[in-house]
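User: Could you check the structure of this?
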Amino acid sequence: MNDRFVILHHTGVDEEHFDLMLESNKALMTWACCENPMGLGEGQSASAQELLDHRKEYLQYEGVISGGRGEVKRVVEGQYSVLGRNNGKLHVRLMALHTGHAVDLHLGQSEVKRA
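Assistant: Sure, the predicted C-alpha coordinates are below.
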Protein backbone atom coordinates (compact mmCIF):
# COMPACT_ATOMS: atom_id res chain seq x y z
CA MET A 1 0.00 0.00 0.00
CA ASN A 2 1.75 3.13 -1.20
CA ASP A 3 -1.01 5.37 -2.51
CA ARG A 4 -2.70 7.74 -0.11
CA PHE A 5 -6.37 8.46 0.47
CA VAL A 6 -8.37 10.99 2.46
CA ILE A 7 -12.02 11.30 3.45
CA LEU A 8 -13.18 14.89 3.94
CA HIS A 9 -16.45 15.97 5.57
CA HIS A 10 -17.82 18.61 3.18
CA THR A 11 -20.26 21.09 4.75
CA GLY A 12 -21.82 24.41 3.77
CA VAL A 13 -23.12 23.11 0.45
CA ASP A 14 -26.64 22.13 -0.62
CA GLU A 15 -26.16 18.58 0.64
CA GLU A 16 -23.57 17.79 3.29
CA HIS A 17 -21.48 14.78 2.25
CA PHE A 18 -18.13 13.00 2.50
CA ASP A 19 -15.50 13.25 -0.24
CA LEU A 20 -13.49 10.06 -0.71
CA MET A 21 -10.27 10.92 -2.55
CA LEU A 22 -7.73 8.38 -3.84
CA GLU A 23 -4.27 9.44 -4.97
CA SER A 24 -3.65 8.47 -8.59
CA ASN A 25 -0.71 9.79 -10.58
CA LYS A 26 -1.06 13.59 -10.61
CA ALA A 27 -4.60 13.92 -9.25
CA LEU A 28 -7.17 12.50 -6.82
CA MET A 29 -9.96 10.21 -8.02
CA THR A 30 -12.98 11.50 -6.08
CA TRP A 31 -16.42 10.30 -4.99
CA ALA A 32 -19.00 12.38 -3.08
CA CYS A 33 -20.67 9.94 -0.64
CA CYS A 34 -23.80 10.48 1.44
CA GLU A 35 -22.15 8.53 4.31
CA ASN A 36 -18.61 8.05 5.54
CA PRO A 37 -17.39 5.01 3.54
CA MET A 38 -15.20 3.85 6.44
CA GLY A 39 -18.33 3.54 8.59
CA LEU A 40 -20.29 1.23 6.30
CA GLY A 41 -21.06 -2.25 7.63
CA GLU A 42 -20.26 -5.41 5.66
CA GLY A 43 -22.43 -5.58 2.53
CA GLN A 44 -23.87 -2.11 3.20
CA SER A 45 -23.90 0.45 0.40
CA ALA A 46 -24.37 4.20 0.18
CA SER A 47 -25.25 6.44 -2.71
CA ALA A 48 -22.28 8.25 -4.16
CA GLN A 49 -21.34 10.24 -7.21
CA GLU A 50 -18.04 9.88 -8.99
CA LEU A 51 -16.65 13.37 -9.54
CA LEU A 52 -13.97 14.86 -11.71
CA ASP A 53 -10.44 14.43 -10.38
CA HIS A 54 -9.32 16.91 -7.73
CA ARG A 55 -5.93 18.49 -7.04
CA LYS A 56 -3.55 16.55 -4.78
CA GLU A 57 -3.46 19.50 -2.37
CA TYR A 58 -6.70 18.16 -0.87
CA LEU A 59 -4.74 15.30 0.72
CA GLN A 60 -3.52 17.84 3.29
CA TYR A 61 -6.15 20.59 3.08
CA GLU A 62 -8.80 21.54 5.62
CA GLY A 63 -10.77 24.77 5.49
CA VAL A 64 -12.94 26.97 3.32
CA ILE A 65 -13.16 26.15 -0.38
CA SER A 66 -13.02 29.12 -2.74
CA GLY A 67 -16.05 30.25 -4.72
CA GLY A 68 -18.53 29.71 -1.88
CA ARG A 69 -18.34 25.92 -2.18
CA GLY A 70 -18.37 25.22 1.54
CA GLU A 71 -15.76 23.89 3.91
CA VAL A 72 -13.93 20.58 4.31
CA LYS A 73 -12.53 18.86 7.39
CA ARG A 74 -10.37 15.71 7.34
CA VAL A 75 -12.17 12.70 8.85
CA VAL A 76 -9.62 9.98 8.09
CA GLU A 77 -6.48 9.55 6.03
CA GLY A 78 -4.28 6.63 5.19
CA GLN A 79 -3.13 4.37 2.41
CA TYR A 80 -5.05 2.27 -0.07
CA SER A 81 -4.42 -0.50 -2.54
CA VAL A 82 -6.36 -1.54 -5.62
CA LEU A 83 -7.64 -5.11 -5.27
CA GLY A 84 -9.19 -5.27 -8.74
CA ARG A 85 -11.69 -3.93 -11.24
CA ASN A 86 -14.96 -5.60 -12.17
CA ASN A 87 -18.03 -4.44 -14.14
CA GLY A 88 -16.90 -0.82 -14.11
CA LYS A 89 -16.26 -0.82 -10.35
CA LEU A 90 -12.97 -0.28 -8.62
CA HIS A 91 -12.30 -2.62 -5.66
CA VAL A 92 -9.99 -1.04 -3.07
CA ARG A 93 -8.75 -1.63 0.47
CA LEU A 94 -8.48 1.48 2.66
CA MET A 95 -6.19 1.39 5.72
CA ALA A 96 -6.60 4.26 8.20
CA LEU A 97 -3.31 5.83 9.22
CA HIS A 98 -3.92 6.42 12.93
CA THR A 99 -6.16 3.47 13.84
CA GLY A 100 -5.10 0.75 11.40
CA HIS A 101 -8.81 0.14 10.68
CA ALA A 102 -9.21 -1.36 7.19
CA VAL A 103 -12.22 -1.70 4.89
CA ASP A 104 -12.66 -3.14 1.41
CA LEU A 105 -14.90 -1.08 -0.87
CA HIS A 106 -16.39 -1.39 -4.36
CA LEU A 107 -16.52 2.07 -5.95
CA GLY A 108 -18.95 2.67 -8.81
CA GLN A 109 -20.23 5.78 -10.57
CA SER A 110 -23.27 6.11 -8.28
CA GLU A 111 -22.61 3.80 -5.32
CA VAL A 112 -20.01 2.84 -2.74
CA LYS A 113 -20.40 -0.64 -1.26
CA ARG A 114 -18.47 -2.31 1.51
CA ALA A 115 -17.27 -5.79 0.55
